Amino acid sequence: MSIPAFGVGTFRLKDQVVVDSVRTALELGYRAVDTAQIYGNEAEVGQAIADSGVGRGELFLTTKIWVDRYSRDKLVPSLETSLAKLRTDCVDLTLIHWPSPGGAVPVAEFMSALAEAKVLGLTRQIGVSNFTIDLMKQAIDVVGADAIATNQIELHPYLQNRKLADFARSQGISITSYMTLAYGQVLKDALMLRIADKHRATPAQVALAWAMQQGYAVIPSSTRRENLQSNLKSLDLKLDAEDMAQIATLDRGHRLANPASLAPLWD
């Protein structure tokens, strides 16, 4: 995998809350951090990293370009601004956060600009987020499949996105699962609770292990130290074939992130 299988997310975390969350995660041993321009917390993430004492070379740092900065004249400068906030001269991965609304900026333009950012040394890898199969094909046509490190998508037991994941796999592109816990809904699921009990684990650990066993990266977030610590244990949890088959039955196309102004025509 070209990106870490496990990291900490920062979506919806602001101000001192995100500083504390990231700093705690790094203290516990996390070494991958995911943020985005639209989260409004890049400066705080940078502060947390600086406060942690963990060397930049030990970390894998991801950010995402927001939709109003996709044009060729805006993308690179916006990433440079992000780097200043994050207190680094290069991130490890930069993603296009959502498809350009209404196709206002062509895929060829923003993927070329993103590739330019890599050539300039502003990011080590590039990728996309919330892209459909068709949009992935368009991106591949511009930069090649080898250049796309990941497609970060909503993926959890209730939205397993198999068609898209299979296509990405066929192209050698990894999948990063966000909302792996379905905003906490899987934590109360009877089946997930049974599997968790079987393994003396938590439903969160089961969901995260389920995703990673399929080759997906995960980036769960939490403001609580005990949850951040508990989530790490999913790295050591091995689900059996029966567990995986049972979780497969939970898929019902239950999409949680579907903003009308941004969402493409999903597969």
Concise description?
With 267 residues, this protein is of the alpha/beta class.
Can you characterise this structure?
The chain has 267 residues and is of the alpha/beta class. The protein has a single domain, classed as Alpha-Beta Barrel (TIM Barrel), CATH 3.20.20.100. 40% of the residues lie in helices and 14% in strands. It is built from ten helices and eight strands. It has an eight-stranded parallel sheet, covered by helices on one side. Helix 1 packs parallel to helix 2 and helix 7 packs across helix 8. The longest helix is centred in the first third of the chain and has 14 residues. The chain is globular, with a radius of gyration of 18 Å. The protein starts with 7 loop residues before the first strand and ends in a 19-residue tail after the last helix. The mean pLDDT is 98.
Provide the descriptors you would attach to this structure in a database record.
alpha/beta, globular, 267 residues, eight-stranded parallel beta sheet, TIM Barrel
